[in-house]
Structures are given as C-alpha cells and as structure tokens.
C-alpha cells in the first residue's frame, strides 16, 4: 500500500460555505447525515483536520455510537480512529479535546519551525493523555508526506474532515480518492465565511470534471459522492 484510500468529507451550504462568521459552529448537516458520518468514521483508520478547525471547533473526532465502537473492538481494532492535525505554525492547543480523548492517539503534521513549536506545545499535555506524535512532513507540510507517514502507521482508509485549507491542500495534491458533500438547503451568503475550497486554487471548470458516484436525499440535505480521478 503506497497511501491510504482518502475520502474528503464536508458539509456545505448551497453557496459552498462550510461555516458562517458567527462564534458558534454552524450546523449544516441534519441528524441523519451526522449518523452517516459516524458510520463513515467507523469504517476508517484515521481522521484528519486542519489547525483552523481545531481552533474554531475544538472537535473530539470520536466514533460516537457505542455499537460502532464495539463493532470495531470485536474486529480487533481500536474503538476510535487515529487523529491527525495539520499545522504550518505548530501552534496547537495542548488542552484541545482531540488530544485528551480516544484510544488510538494523535499525530501532528507540521514542518520547518513548526516542528519545534508543536513539540514544545505538546509537552504541556497532561500526563495520562493518549500518545501524540509530531511529524515533520515538509515545509510547508505536504499531503504526499502525510499520506506516506499514515500508510507506514498501517492506515488504509483516511477520512479528511476539513476545513477549507486542508480540503484544498488534498484536492490540489491529486492524492484524494473520493469526495462526500452534504449540501444544506440554505445559503450562508456572507463574504467572509469559510469556503470549502479556496478560490482559484483547485483545477476547475468543465475540463477538470469529477465522476458522480451517488446523489441522494437525506431529508432536506443532499448527499453527493464523487470519484476524484484515478488512484495512483
Ligand atoms: N462544514 C464542515 O463540514 C466543516 C466546517 N469546518 C469549518 O471550517 C472552518 C475552518 O476552516 P479553515 O479556516 O479553512 O481551516 P483548516 O481546518 O483548513 O486549517 C487551516 C490551517 O491549516 C494549516 N495550513 C494551511 N495551509 C497549509 C498548508 N499548505 N500546509 C500545511 N498546513 C496548512 C494552517 O495552520 P497554522 O495556522 O497552525 O499554521 C492553517 O491555519 C471552521 O469555521 C470550521 O467550523 C471545518 C470542518 C468541517
Ligand atoms: N458543522 C458541521 C461539521 N463540522 C465539523 O464536524 C466535526 C465534528 O467533530 P466532533 O465535534 O468531534 O464530532 C468538526 O470537525 C467540525 O468542524 N461537520 C458536519 O458534518 N456537518 C456540519 O454541519
């Protein structure tokens, strides 16, 4: 295995925004969609977010359902996924919930000066927290280096849960296999709201199509699954 099968997952508004500018996390998914995402998490080995998402949302990135945790354990796996964070600065909060929870540990991917910063930040974690490694994945960190390190850790399926900078990084790398979008039935309409993809960064237009695998209604949320180019 040269790299994990990589799935990008994101909930977007009709105008392609993944949050609004307010202080609270915007809910774009509905309950049925969150449950599908939990099932998707349970089928993966690792879950990855950017440092922006860590700062904005302080996510736990756990498999939420006890039945799914048990199903994983019954197959000899950890109940939860290995958690990965990507940061250029290395400035991650050692008290983040992501580092304190789960049973499979965490990896912080950074590079350049960020490596020393992340190591010193993580040294401040409480004793007894699950293990957390810092990996130099280049300056700036690259999707290829991250995927190679995850493969070396035995990760066969990776779920990337954003945010926009990190989705853009994986899309432009050409090293992602699948995209799952949950499209909420509203517009965000704010100029400064975070986008799913940074403008101009990703090969775009009809000359760079994706293959539609599935289009389905989950209540008012539209689930779209795309194939992202051939596996290499
Ligand atoms: N609707 C949804 O499904 C989701 C929504 N969100 C929302 O998205 C928003 C956060 O998105 P966004 O701001 O784009 O943040 P990201 O989570 O994409 O993280 C951005 C950070 O990643 C690091 N980074 C940026 N570029 C690179 C690069 N080329 N190489 C390595 N590291 C890089 C930087 O970290 P550093 O600053 O440390 O250098 C940067 O601040 C939040 O509002 C969150 O709520 C998030 C996930 C899912
Ligand atoms: N708002 C939003 C999402 N937001 C993202 O979902 C993650 C939740 O992690 P956790 O809190 O650990 O379960 C986190 O990364 C957050 O940014 N996801 C979605 O599927 N739909 C949504 O509407």
Automatic annotation (TrEMBL):
Enzyme class: oxidoreductase
Keywords linked to the UniProt accession: NADP, Oxidoreductase
Keyword Oxidoreductase: yes
Biological source species: Nocardiopsis algeriensis
GO molecular function, one term: 5-amino-6-(5-phosphoribosylamino)uracil reductase activity
EC id: 1.1.1.193
Domain Bacterial bifunctional deaminase-reductase C-terminal: 4-221
InterPro entries: DHFR-like_dom_sf (IPR024072), RibDG_C (IPR002734), Riboflavin_Biosynth_HTPR (IPR050765)
Keyword Phosphoprotein attached: no
Protein name: 5-amino-6-(5-phosphoribosylamino)uracil reductase
Pathway as given in its UniProt record: Cofactor biosynthesis; riboflavin biosynthesis
């Amino acid at each position: 295995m040269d790299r994990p099968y990589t799935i990008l997952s994101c909930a977007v508004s009709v105008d392609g925004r993944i949050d609004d500018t307010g202080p609270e996390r915007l809910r774009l998914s509905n309950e049925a969609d969150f449950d599908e995402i939990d099932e998707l998490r349970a089928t993966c080995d690792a879950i990855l977010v950017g440092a922006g998402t860590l700062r904005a949302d302080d996510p736990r990135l756990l498999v939420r359902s006890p039945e799914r945790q048990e199903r994983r354990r019954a197959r000899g796996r950890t109940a939860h996924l290995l958690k990965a964070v990507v940061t250029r600065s290395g400035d991650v909060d050692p008290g983040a919930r992501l580092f304190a929870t789960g049973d499979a540990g965490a990896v912080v991917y950074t590079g350049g000066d960020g490596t020393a910063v992340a190591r010193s930040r993580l040294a401040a974690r409480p004793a007894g927290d699950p293990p957390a490694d810092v990996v130099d994945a280049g300056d700036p960190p690259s999707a290829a280096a991250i995927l190679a390190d995850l493969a070396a850790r035995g990760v066969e399926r990776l779920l990337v849960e954003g945010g926009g900078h990190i989705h853009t990084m994986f899309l432009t790398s050409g090293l992602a296999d699948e995209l799952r979008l949950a499209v909420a039935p509203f517009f965000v309409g704010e100029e400064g709201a975070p986008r799913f993809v940074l403008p101009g960064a990703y090969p775009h237009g009809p000359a760079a199509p994706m293959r539609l695998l599935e289009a389905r209604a989950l209540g008012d949320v539209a689930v779209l699954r795309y194939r992202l180019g051939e596996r290499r």
